[in-house]
Specification:
- By secondary structure, the chain is α/β, with parallel strands linked by helices.
- The chain folds into two domains: 141 residues, 3-Layer(aba) Sandwich (Rossmann fold), CATH 3.40.50.2000; 196 residues, Rossmann fold (3-Layer(aba) Sandwich).
- Helix content is 39%, strand content 13%.
- The chain has 14 helices and 13 strands.
- A six-stranded parallel β-sheet has the order 8-7-6-9-10-11, sandwiched between helices. It has a five-stranded parallel β-sheet with strand order 3-2-1-4-5.
- The protein starts with a helix and ends with a helix.
Length: 366
């Protein structure tokens, strides 16, 4: 006689949780907290449904990540999306397991139901009671402790790691060494600049527009770069980004006098970017995905914020070496209200402060 499904799920050591998370790079870095917590709770790899060309290289080398089921878009009508058909078929063959749906989107729930995963197996983020001013990492840790109805008893402890756990494989470090050697940069201190983001680089739209809350003027970037270059002539200042951000970086460099600044946008696949962030002496960035990975890797960081919530999205770091800047323009948060001098002062602080005690405190919490 077979055991009830609930008992099988609770006691089986081979249970593989399923996470459904569609989001930007920063969203996926933060969601590593959820994946890590579920991996610790169940003692098994966590399978992930997501999208994005960078999602596989970001997640596939992270401890606790199991199978990745990637589609280009969940928004495409199902009738016109062979990828969604394949996903549904694959999930049916995989079988039902406890599933955490992280997106407040009816299409995600619809796809999961079509794949034969019943409501009893689902924890939906929309059912999690909101907590005022709660950080996204803490929210995911609470969500990892939530249980679908099919789980009748606790499965294991839930991680309380306050920082997204981001792992850099040795192969990524070796690739970085080879790349730095080709650029004649091996052994030099590295400073990273992330001026662009997906919103700024939208095609056929001016960067400086009211709807772009993550734009900071090129001239101010140039002032910051010139100051860092003068204060650290031994360092290489690397303007990072995807290929579409290369033009923005060139325009910024045209306004600088720095001779030790380079545009490397388009030459940084995600594994190389993360290895660079692990090694860099610091980074200045707008509020965008690479800021979250830099913080998680302990890179001293200055982040310029616009309208996004600091309570929810301030990058988390084990070292605590993160300074977030925000200013108001006529009572409204605006990145444009941040001056170059404020960024330079924050850079000085993030470079000069002793973060050792903060590091020890966070490690104890973990």
């Amino acid at each position: 006689m077979s055991r009830p499904l609930a008992a099988t799920l609770v006691h089986s050591p081979t249970i593989r949780p399923l996470v459904v998370r569609f989001g930007s790079m920063g969203d996926m870095v933060i969601s590593l907290s959820l994946i890590h917590a579920l991996h610790k709770r169940f003692g098994a790899p966590v399978d992930v449904i997501s999208s994005g060309s960078w999602t596989r290289p970001l997640l596939e080398s992270q401890p606790g990540v199991g199978h990745l089921y990637l589609i280009r878009s969940r928004k495409t009508p199902y009738a016109f999306s062979p990828e969604q058909w394949q996903l549904v078929n694959t999930l049916r063959e995989r079988g039902a397991s406890p599933t955490w749906i992280c997106d407040a989107n009816d299409k995600c729930r619809w796809l999961i139901a079509r794949a034969g995963i019943p409501d009893s197996h689902i924890a939906d983020i929309r059912s999690l009671t909101p907590i005022d001013r709660e950080h996204a990492v803490d929210q995911w840790l609470r969500f990892a402790a939530a249980s679908p109805a099919v789980l009748k008893s606790p499965v294991g402890p839930v991680s309380k790691l306050p920082v997204p756990p981001l792992n850099i494989p040795d192969a990524w470090r070796s690739d970085l060494d080879q790349w730095l050697r080709k650029q004649n940069l091996l052994g030099r201190p590295l400073v990273l600049i992330q001026a662009g983001n997906r919103r700024t680089m939208k095609w056929a739209r001016p960067r400086k527009r009211a709807s772009n809350t993550k734009y900071w003027p090129e001239q101010r970037w140039a002032e910051v770069i010139d100051w860092i270059a003068a204060s650290r002539p031994d360092a290489a200042i690397l303007l990072a980004g995807v290929p579409q951000e290369s033009a923005l970086n060139r325009e910024i460099l045209d306004l600088t006098t720095a001779r030790n600044a380079l545009n490397v946008a388009g030459d940084l696949p995600i594994h190389r970017l993360l290895a660079l962030q692990e090694r860099a002496i610091g980074m200045v960035s707008v509020d965008t995905g690479p800021a979250h990975s830099a913080a998680a890797l302990g890179c001293p960081l200055v982040v310029l914020f616009g309208t996004a919530s600091l309570d929810l999205y301030a990058p988390r770091s084990r070292s605590g070496a993160v300074i977030c800047l925000r200013e108001l323009d006529r009572g409204t948060p605006s990145m444009m209200a941040i001056s170059a001098d404020q960024v330079i002062d924050a850079w000085k602080n993030v470079q000069d402060r002793d973060w050792g005690q903060v590091t020890e405190r966070l490690q104890m919490r973990a």
